[in-house]
Structures are given as structure tokens and as C-alpha cells.
Target: 3-oxoacyl-[acyl-carrier-protein] synthase-3
Amino acid sequence: MTTPTLKQSTGPQFTRIYAIGAARGDITVPNDDLVGPIDSSDEWIRQRTGIIERKRASHDVLAVDLAQSASLEAIEGAGIAPSQIGAILVSTISNPVITPSLATQVAERIGAPLAAAYDISAACAGYAYGIGQADSLIRAGLAEYVLVIGAEKLSEFVDPTDRSISFLLGDGAGAAIIGPSDSVGIGPTIWGSDATKRDEIYMTGTNIGFRDQESEWPTLRQNGQAVFRWAVWEMVKVANQAIEAAGITVDDLAAFIPHQANMRIIDEFAKQLKLPDTVAIGRDIATTGNTSAASIPLATHRLLEEQPGLSGGLALQIGFGAGLVFGAQVVVLP
Model:
């Protein structure tokens, strides 16, 4: 019996980011609103994190609502029809239900109900994971355009008395349209994890424990010092790998857009990379807070608003956090 020859899908050689959309929580929460339960001060939070205020969403505003708003802006900016989107990837750890995925909810809301849709649970590295997967899906011929979203409502998982992470967290969503390109617009993705340190950022319990009244509602915690050391000393190696894989040097960068974990981490990271003074650095955390998977696209959106001349330049973006997982790539800014 002769085995028939199978066909394999192929796509364009290159991809790029077409547009970025953003949505932040509708409530501004200054440090003074949080310091009482943690017996702290505005000065302490600013010195420790660089945060002046953070955006959080009202009770009735969900992560999917933020994702929808950001996605619609990105679609409009890209100048495509929702029906052209072949896949929707949502990076999130704050979908309030196990199923359906947040991605399928977004698909229906934006007018792309037939698109492939799935969630990525990679926390703060999730957006970089999504960009890497979108690049691969398009070049493999599985989609013409891919919508990548980072969306979080982390305020649902905050213990107001926690001094490790609660005052860092905000709510928001960032979205990007990825599509075919005539030249390289997304460099190789460097990704991975250090599972031996997965307990450095963790939940205080499980939904099952809460259901069985064995524990309180699960909230986020972190080992701040361990995370700081890992983020700076280990992630700078990953960032340099992404730069090398892209075939460039730091002198070629127009922007550095790391996960908005902590201003001290961002500043030390930039120092370790030996970035030239000409490189713009995303520091959206000062007024948005740490939004996990949403932080890189939100910081990108703000940089492009404030400095539109960055469009077309090269940006190093790197996400790192809970898991502990990481992802980085060099991209051409839309």
C-alpha cells in the first residue's frame, strides 16, 4: 500500500507587531489609601517600589472587559477586520472561571467567534510567551493575524494586610495585533522557567480549600528579596541572549520594556545591561502598578504615546515572574 504524501501548512517568512491597545482600571488608588493595613507610608512604598499610585478596576469590571477594550483599540490601529484574526491568545492568571477561557470570551465580544482561542498561564512572562507563539503560528501558516492579550484583575487576589506584594498590584490589559511582514519584525524568543523557585511567588491557598472552609480566599504573596535577586542577576542573562539571538547589540535598541515588577528592579536591570542613555525605558509602573501579564504591552503603549518617534525602532521586551517563568524577544515597535 502506498502512503499518500501529506501536505504541511506554511506561512510568511516574517512577522511584526501592527498595533498596540491598552485599558487600565477605572479607579486610581494612591499609596495613602493602602498604607494603614500594612502599617507603612507613602514614602516607604515609593522608595521600595517606585509606585506613586496604581490603577484598579471597579467591582463590576472584569479582566475580560479590560481585554475587550484593549483589543478593540489594537484592531482599529492595525486596520484589519476581526474576521481576519485566526487566533486569540490571552495571557492571564485572573480569569474568574476555570472554563470557558478568557480568550473565547474575547473572541465572541470582538466579532471573531470562529478564531482559535486559548489562555496562557505564564503570569508576568505571559505576554512575551504570547508574542513568541503568535510569531510561530503565523510563520507556520496557522493564522494570518493573531491577537495577543495580557489581561489581569489582580486586585481580586490582594490581601490588604500583606506587606510582600499587595501594594504593588494593579489591573489592566494590553493587546497587540501580530501579522505578516516583508522583513523581520520579531526576533527569536528566549523562554523558559526555573521551576525550582516556583514557590517564591505563590497563592496562600486553593479554591478547593476555600470551598471546604479550610482556608481563606487565596491571595498572592512573594519572597521579595529572592525575586529581586533572580529578576536582576538571572534575567539579565536571558535579556542578553535575546539581544544576541536577534543579531544586534544594546547600542541598536531604541527602547527597553521589561515587566513592570518594581522600579528598583527596572533601574538595576538597565544598569546591568549597560544601556546607552539614548534607550527609552518603560516605567509605567509608577502610575499603573504591577499588572503581571498586561504590564509589557501597557508600558509599550505608554512609551509610544509619549514618544511616537520610537515607532519603527527596536525594543527589547522581557517578562519574568511567578512560576518562575521568563520570556524575552527583540521587536520592531509598531
About this structure: The CA atoms of residues 25 and 56 lie 4 Å apart. The chain has two domains: 14-181, 190-332.
